[in-house]
């Protein structure tokens, strides 16, 4: 039976205490809303927002309407199973057993805590099975999850947070709060944490995009093309976390030298007449000879002859150009730029990566590679940048590229203060170590290949992939592979390569160390322009995902024993899906379990979980890797692999919901997600659409439906509400990136 366990009224929005004047208070009142949070005995949280309305008698009244939050707040079944394991092993003692008060069958302490003047905001903190905040974003209440540092895996206690206290006044007027949660270590031990407000959320550049996360914008004043963290202890530290950025900025080139060519008007007219006479003579010779001279005219046109500068109109205007630079940034100093390296004129930065290359020296006598005389090989951390050089004449000649290797030099500088004490400061600087010209084309991809204790760099330039080895202060080519058109991206796992061609779909390659060769295992023969490619896996099964120019997602597998693989040299398409948004990159992340989702330090919580349960991580669902992507319209999403049982359950639910729920403008949600075929010649697949992908945007609506509708939909597919909500909860945990 459904019962109300707790209700709480609260105001959500800017705090009145932070407003110094009545005018500021009146402006803040427009961004505040009266809200009601209802907690049920099943663990569901319902948010209602109050609004004033007038009836027929022109009497104002207050009405509350439920607002969808898109989150599941019930406990997961994985927590119950883990708690049962702890009890069987005797880890849960008598002093930490789940009491009736915690279970909710008797009186229980409050879980809904309203707060005021935390970072000059009012709202509510819900200490539920997955703690979250309700705060205001542009006048609308928004949920944001609360992460705990060094928290114990879920299951030891029913609730991760057992205490919360706010309204702690501080000198900076941020408004602090306290949390009490179970920590890593002995089961039952707790950690008391003091927080100095929500300054990371309510910064001048803070955003709440939804999905339970917060985002902080960092204005750099330029266009950031690539960003990488230098994960090297000798360079980057907790006190000075260093990032390397590949940026571009707009600049204006001065063309004042075109205003005056140093000739008088008479000399300029004579030169023009001579050229006109020469052109007429060539045309007469062409007519008498019976051939066309038009192509010769085009080749002889010079740039300065294409236009004339009229000084009365202001002369030659400055022309805009794009300048590329490599920046070294210290995040601890407010993202201060501490070192820069500008690229050459007409050179475009295309790719960048932080790679630790192994120094390999070829012996002159035998030719066998060695790393020194009985000395362990040492890796040198480089910042590799790939560029494309376009000549000033545009596309008249083929473009080339360069590979630049930078090192970060660290120096110490000492200075004396006013009191006579000497302070030592660290200074970092980008140093160009090596550059290599690539005549195959622009360098669009750079990766690190680790094999048999040696790390090499993989360069994708034009239609060519080359394996370069670092040794003797230079890069030496060790292997290559030639694609059809243009290398877009290279994704590596172990010694396998997933190559995405800009016009010819996917290639699956393998690197053989014995003969230093790249071998093609399989490819997709459909002429698909690939915008992004990535890898997803579950257990021992791995799939390749790519997006094309029609905003479709396709999923391929390397299955040499499948009849559709044409003897093993073709990638088999397993599923397809119309995303409807364009993306250019797929990032991989490990799918977290609901036992780790409350932790802000998942590595330490995972280590504690493996000590409690030595078998954790052996199930396929604990070995899942998903992909995340950002879209060109500002969206963010994830693609998560599912087990077969969960997939068929959600497929049936998706089919029923697409027919039962109302859609915008009566449009079909099912047809919107169908694969869009390309109009290119030879690009239409002869087989039917594979489908095979769940629409998460539609499935998440199930959590916000009334309980009666949830029961009707669950009974229509032969399942239960608890099981479906648990699948949606695990799906949301697996799609969490931060």
Give me the count of strands. 38
Catalogue the unreliable spans: 295-299
Structural class: alpha+beta
What do the pLDDT scores average to?
84
Describe the main β-sheet briefly: 8 strands, antiparallel
Ends: how far apart? 36 Å
Q: Tell me the overall shape.
A: globular
What fraction, in percent, of the residue positions are helical? Answer: 10-25%
Radius of gyration: 32 Å
Content of β-strand? 35-45%
Separate helix tally: 11
Account of the protein in words:
This protein has 738 residues and is α+β, with helices and mostly antiparallel strands. It is built from eleven helices and 38 strands. The strands form nine sheets. Strands 1, 2, 3, 4, 5, 6, 7 and 8 form an eight-stranded antiparallel β-sheet that branches. Strand 2 and strand 3 form a beta hairpin. The relative contact order is 0.07. The model is unreliable at 295-299 (pLDDT under 50).
Q: Which structural traits does this protein have?
A:
738 residues; single chain; 8-stranded antiparallel β-sheet; 7-stranded antiparallel β-sheet; alpha+beta
What can be said about this structure in brief?
This protein is α+β, with helices and mostly antiparallel strands. The protein is 16% helix and 40% strand. It is globular and about 105 Å long.
Topology overview:
Blueprint: E1 4-14, H1 22-29, E2 33-40, E3 45-54, E4 60-67, H2 77-88, H3 100-103, E5 112-118, E6 121-126, E7 132-137, E8 140-145, E9 161-168, E10 176-182, E11 190-195, E12 206-210, E13 213-216, E14 223-229, E15 242-253, H4 265-289, H5 294-300, E16 319-330, E17 336-342, E18 347-358, E19 361-362, E20 369-370, E21 379-389, E22 400-416, E23 422-438, E24 443-451, E25 454-461, E26 464-471, E27 474-482, E28 487-493, E29 496-501, E30 506-512, E31 517-523, E32 530-538, E33 541-548, E34 552-557, E35 572-578, E36 587-590, H6 602-612, E37 624-630, E38 636-639, H7 644-660, H8 669-672, H9 696-699, H10 707-716, H11 721-734
Antiparallel strand pairs: 1-2, 1-6, 2-3, 3-4, 5-6, 6-7, 7-8, 9-10, 10-11, 12-13, 14-15, 15-16, 16-17, 18-21, 19-20, 21-22, 22-23, 24-25, 25-26, 26-27, 28-29, 29-30, 30-31, 32-33, 32-37, 33-34, 34-35, 36-37, 37-38
